[in-house]
Write a structure and sequence with these properties.
Blueprint lengths: L4 E4 H22 L8 H10 L8 H20 L4 H25 L6 H23 L7 H12 L4 H24 L9 H24 E4 L10
Parallel strand pairs: 1-2
Amino acid sequence: MQKKTLIYSEAAYLIGLVVLAFGVALMEAADFGVSMVVAPAYLIYRYLNPMLPFFTFGMSEYCLQAVLLLATMLLLRRFRFSWVLTFATAVLYGFILDGCMILVGLIPHSHLAIRIVFYIAGVLLCSAGVSLLFHTYLPPEAYELFVKLVSAKFGIEIHRFKTAYDIVSMLIAVILSFCFFGFGVFIGVRFGTLLCALINGFLISRFSHLFETCFRFEDVLPFRKFFV
């Protein structure tokens, strides 16, 4: 029997956020289309940033996640304090994302081959990051919380629900692109976004299987009871 490597849930949480943010930054730099989950926030960022230079991609992310968190509470008709801490995760992720955007921007990526590498790496990192967040008790981002709770409430297999959610997010982003920049103009939503929407759920399930095969997730802090 293969011996599994110990990884603490709290470490999985931090690693997941960094990996996810770096993946999003790589996809944005590749310019083949960002992840469908963050596409609506990216469109809002691209629209407002020229008028409000202080408004970053990370800020757009946690503002939109606050709205999604409220929608989750209304849909489930219940409230838990731990869900409020999800917003803290969104803010932390937003700061990490802005840092990753700066870091990736320092790497020359005008060549097509480099952009392809960025895109592939970005898709894989995003899927791995989400999977890691699913393996921790700490508050996930509002996106992951919504998928986890709503799929459980309605008895839908989580990875299928995730794929459907991704496709809806992509359609919303397309509508926003047309509204903000004109009909037929695709900003941040391209063929790479569609491809990611179709395979992201599958990749998350594969990474989850890999992580559960190779790692043993345990808590180092006694806080799980406050979040589950």
